[in-house]
Amino acid sequence: MEQSWRWFGPDDVVPLRAIRQAGARGVVTALHQIPYGVVWSEEEIRKRQGLIEADPEMGLHWNVVESLPIHERIKLDEGDQTELYDNYRASMRNLAACGIKTICYNFMPVVDWTRTTLYQPLPGGGRALRFEAYQYAAFDCFMLRRPGAEEEHGAALVARAKKWFDAAPQSDKDTLLSSIMAGLPGAFDRYDIPALRNMLERYKGVTPAILRERLVKFLREVIPLADELGMRFAIHPDDPPRSLMGLPRIVSSAEDFRYMAAAVPSLANGITLCTGSLGAGAQNDIPAIAGEFAERIHFVHLRNVAKEADGSFQEAEHLGGDTDMVKVVETLLREQKRRQEAGRADWRMPMRPDHGHELLDDINKGSFPGYSAIGRLKGLAEIRGLMVAISQLEKLPL
Questions:
Q1: Model pTM?
Q2: CA distance 332 to 347
Q3: How far apart are CA 222 and CA 281, in angstroms?
Q4: Whole-angstrom distance, CA of residue 363 vs CA of residue 380
Q5: Torsion sign across C-alpha atoms 307, 308, 309, 310
Q6: Does the pLDDT of residue 181 top 60, yes or no?
Q7: 306: CB partners within 8 A, 6+ apart
């Protein structure tokens, strides 16, 4: 697989030279400074490419867009969206003109990936991302005060949530809000409680079936152009793969992927296999999903989580946690061999380590939560070793 690394641009505290030192060559990035719905000009795309490729000896190149964001009005199916779709397609054309043809995106309403704790202490002093079910319930039931929330969480969890809420100082509640709102680095919208309630009101009555229809509408607007340009779309799974704050989540399971593929059969309509996002759902068999949708996997996020009975989970080491990473990587390498034998020039899948622990000198350095250098370097090294071992044992191309 093509070893890659997420980089948030010139303001990222992890510099490009660290990416090369980690052993990656592909750079996964986006123009976070451009507001949602505005065209990414060819000039701005080439400017970012120029930064990445400035030192030819490093051999870095921009291989995946993560992400070209979808405006919230498209998810809401709100108002005239003609200009939004025209701008999105214009950005696609400009990316393709620059040779960048893989787009990772998501269709999560309002909030992106969601954690309650950004800096959970680990043995030895490292820190990890964590989703604590009772703290999320405290936020949903007693901070947001969402109607019907208590019934959804269950009596035992609500009781624990209330105990925490009553004892927690305001500073802890403020930290919980900021953690839940952290989401995707570079996102423009951050909500306080009143603003979040207003957003949820706009989604009132939107069921999973309705949101699915809106996703299909989006795909039918962009996938024909993707086919024309030789581009591939790779939807990112919901993180976590469950409803949050009463909002529907529709990219959480194998069934969801089957629905998408049936609605828009083009192979340009693909997925980002994120083993951590899918792995947070007890219903998901990640190796089986990788096998079933292998030909639609256009981008890979490899990380692991350890789940708990109450719905909590924590970022684990890349080869630890609940997902059998050996089976997943073997499945992906077999798919690469199939693509190579079919004569595809781009048979090698772009892959990046995701959500590393914050370790050693990276602690308190100010990197985006989950995106410090050393933890991801460690994860990439572990995955690289796994890839080499499987490749040699099974005679599969790397």
A1: 0.95
A2: 11
A3: 29
A4: 19
A5: negative
A6: yes
A7: 313, 314, 316, 320, 321, 322
Rounded Cα distance between 287 and 290, Å, is 5
d(CA 151, CA 146): 11
Closest CA to 350 of 241, 268, 234, 260: 234
Per-residue confidence (pLDDT) for residue 267, from 0 to 100:
97
Omega before residue 240 within 30° of 0, cis: yes
Residues 6 or more apart in contact with residue 230 via CB below 8 angstroms: 96, 101
* Average model confidence (pLDDT) across the chain: 95
Q: Work out the number of other CB atoms within 10 angstroms of the CB of residue 288.
A: 13
Active site residues: 236, 274, 301, 354-355, 371
* DSSP calls for 340-389: HHTT-TT-SPEEEE-SPPB-GGGTTS-PPTT--HHHHHHHHHHHHHHHHH
Residue 102 has phi, psi (to 5 degrees) of -120, 125
* 3 state SS of 26: strand
Read off φ and ψ for residue 63, nearest 5 degrees: -110, -25
- pLDDT tens string 14-69: 999 999 999 999 999 999 999 999 999 999 999 999 999 999 999 999 999 998 99
State pLDDT tens for residues 86-137.
Answer: 999 999 999 999 999 999 999 999 988 999 999 999 999 999 999 999 999 9
- Peptide bond just before 67 cis, omega within 30 deg: yes
For the chain, the domains span 2-108+205-309+320-394, 117-182
| Alpha-carbon span 329 to 326, nearest angstrom | 5
Please name the fold of domain 2-108+205-309+320-394.
TIM Barrel (3.20.20)
Sign, CA torsion 71/73/76/80: negative
Per the DSSP assignment, residues forming a β-bridge with 232 are: 102
Residue 294 neighbours by CB under 8 Å, 6+ apart: 331, 332, 334, 335, 338
- The strand pairing partners of 2, in sequence order, are 350
Decide: 288 and 258 in contact? Cβ < 8 Å.
no
